[in-house]
Design goal:
The structure holds two protein chains of two kinds. Chain A is an alpha+beta fold. Chain A is built from 16 helices and 20 strands. By secondary structure, chain B is an alpha+beta fold. In chain B, about 40% of the residues lie in helices and about 20% in strands. Chain B is built from 21 helices and 18 strands. In chain B, the strands form four sheets. Chain B has a seven-stranded antiparallel sheet with strand order 15-12-14-13-17-18-16, sandwiched between helices. Chain B has a five-stranded antiparallel sheet with strand order 5-6-10-8-9, with helices on both faces. Classes of the chains: A alpha+beta, B alpha+beta.
Chain lengths: ~475, ~550
Amino acid sequence: MSRHPLEPALEAAVGADHVLFGKRALMQIAGKAAGDIEPPAPTWVVQPASAAEVADVLRACSRERVMVVPWGTGSTHALHARDERTRVVLDMRRMTNVLHLDETSLVVHAQAGLTARTLEELLIPRGLTLGDFPPAALGSTLGGLLSARGAGRLTPRHGFLEDACLGVSAVLADGRTIHTRVAPRRATGPDLSRVLMGSEGTLGIITGVVLRIDRRPESRLYGAHAFPPTLDNPVAAAIEAVKRALAEDARPTAMGVYDPAALAAHYGAEAVPGDLAGGCVLVTATAGLVDLAAADLAIIGDAAAAGGAQPLGPALAETWWTMRARAYGMGYAAAAPLPPGSDARRSALEAAKLGGPGAAGTLAPVDLEVYARLDDLPRLYATGVAHIRAQGAEPRAHIGRFDSAGGILFLAGAPALDQAAREKLADVLAPLGARRARATFGDPALAKYLHDLKRELDPHGILNPDRAPPRAEAA
Amino acid sequence: MIHPSQAERLASACAKVVGSARVSRATSDRHSYARDQWPRVLIGMRDGKGAPFPPDVVAWPTTTAEVAALVRVARELGVPVVPYAAGSGVCGGAAPIYGGLVIDTKPMDRILALDTRNATVRVQAGMNGERFERELNRRGFTLGHFPSSIYCSTVGGWLAARGAGQMSTKYGKIEDMTLGLEVVTGRGDIVRTGVDGRAAAGPDWTQVFIGSEGTLGVLTEGTLRLRRSPELRILRGFELPTVDAGMQAIRAVMQRGLRPAVVRLYDPFDSFLAMRHRAEAAAAAGDEGAAYVPTPPPAKGLAGRLARSLASARQRVQDTLLAGALARPRILNPVLDSLVPKLARKGCLLIVGCEGAARRTEVEARLTFAELERAGGRDLGEGPGLNWLKKRYAVSYRQSTLFAAGAFADTMEVASTWERLPDLYESVREAIGRHAMVMAHFSHAYPEGCSIYFTFVAHAPDRARMERVYDAIWSDGLSAAARAGGTISHHHGVGLSKGAFMAEEHRESMAILRSLKSVMDPDGVMNPGKLGLAAPPRLTDVARAS
């Protein structure tokens, strides 16, 4: 069989060792997600190590009209290798260098294939951190995190992950390399990095990111409050407390509202305070300068008390915060801050990675997560839980990732809902204001503009065509 | 200018959309919209001639649908469209340099919905800044956006130019408080951004349209996040020994996670003027805060006279010696450098203020002030802060006397990360200082960096030479900013004055901007010649033609 004309060019770009072919290659990078079938069209996995190599690969693919699918940890989409198009899967995970760490400005420039968790492991011994973003998000590559917008990647203390991104480097379809330049803020036209962020590799391949980082906080404080079932609507009261605290300028690290079933499933039956059936718990973690963290905790406590909640003390929230981090291999991030470089810190880091008291735990699975406005969340919670129960499963739910506009509702059933039941649940919740991440492209009137922008930047349509907006929206 | 017959067709087509009472070809109207507050144009107008860029037709729509229809009319006729509101921009962004149709959004000035439960507001683009803030205050809210132009700027202008207010360190720039927009694109479509909030896929269109300066479409409405009116505001002045110490102090505050609303560090000459001005103001008002204000001895000589004419603008710059000195900035700046510290016997003034809900503000202010003292700051009490607050919108209105006296003043706001900031300060200051007297303050601080606001004053004997000096200042200053790794604009925008530097600012990324332009405005009718998207005409040629 003669070689495909693309293959020599790919090998010239990244070296023969980093060009893999066919089903085995896909299985190697994506495991079962790749599907155990031989792709119907020639498929390569190419592993570049630099933006220049990505540019060479894209130039070759552009010439041959071969589609290119960027691949990180596979956390947001699967590899659909079932159609007839010849494709190159661009495995970004060799691009893991930190290019510049500016400890004066607290800014890091890293290659896009580095996972946020690995970056965090590099920062921690220097007394630095990415920030208290939800640990569940940090297993993805930086490029993946910023290419695909995630509704829940925020913390009231640090804002959205996208907001921490001061610039990106990317390669366009024809191999042109661009770098959006770094400034804290600017007024020189549209924010060009925001065109690439969120576009899921359809307009360009993000090869590097510049992120704002932070110093490790000098304190972490915890609080928990029970909203008893005797209240009219305990979940609504808890959401109201969240809203009130944020309006009072509190900037906590995280807040979560849990029903008793979710608490028990995630943190064990012993985590559930007595007499809570039908009620819920608001758990809170704050961080930073001690007095500021204490003020934030007090503001949230007062807001909860005003809504009829009883204080529970810090233990439950500390369990929640710590287990949540450990479940994603980030026990060290949850640990009480220690002086940088100390032996204690190193051993905490080791323990978190290797096992022992800080080792990875597990959290109960979630069947569906939806984003909604704060005002819509109580009704969505009630409807979701009732629907799951009506399907014959025992429901559990928690709400978190709050900002002043909205939050994320996490729903699950025991036994777990199957795919069809999840879709049905999403359909039930959608008319009440629930939105699944990346399910829409916003105003349908903008879809044609996105199509035309794609045509401008990627005239042959080679970049991740699977994630281009659906034709129906464009029509 | 377009052909008169074309202008006639444009006017009658516009009249069909908005009614003949809301369309004008009158000379007085055309000349009212022929410029913004770009100092280069003001220099040119001093000899009594009209503003250089009159549009052919002005229209005053009252609805978004009318705006869309007007854009479609202009598109069909192939004539330029320039969105215009209060015209307070200082970069020539709203100047109709090719004539055509000006769409004035000021009649669209209503609050459409104030959601007090969720603290958001939907407001039309033509809403005046000061009136908007007053309305919000009445309902117990604030936007937290206080540009010095607040009396003569609009929400739409803030959004179009990516503006910042004086309290941006807490509340953010306008792009940080915007949840969504309504836009009429250059194709005449009405689109909404921010729909489905953070759950939507694709580019963040809100951040694409903010800062587009009318080149992609007309911004007709914004949905903005509000804050409750502050329960408490605590202001202070500090004195830092040097600019460098001041920068380090601000960096320490921001990187500790503290978010004061105001942080302003004045370099020695700016501090001298600020302190002196405030001392005078406080004395005149019998303000008890004056006790805290350092009062330098009566200034003598050149620097003192400069100070008086700049800071209070009471004295016209007519003195030939003074004019001569301004014309020799290479000599003047070093003289000031050596004189000012001696005259003032002080270091750099830093104004800092915290505000918001009472409990957190008290803690934040205490920690912020402690951090500043740790960094070497000397507490001057609340006087300097209160005086700043009282006078904070006044400075822009004091420049006209300088212009009337034959000099000119302008400002350049650049920004960078902290690592590059000292170099940015020195480089830009040196570059401007070749041509003008220059001073600076640092404001709009972030954990990762800060903006620097340069003010410069220069003089030349005639218009042509003055324009040459003006252009040289901008050319050298912005080149220096780019070389030092800074951005060429933090919040004034690009317009005409920085268009030529956009390629240096964005380099290869200009490809994305050009793609956005050709998608949103395929016929190139929206505010042509701006934002560095196309080479503008030689301004002198345009001015003479008019």
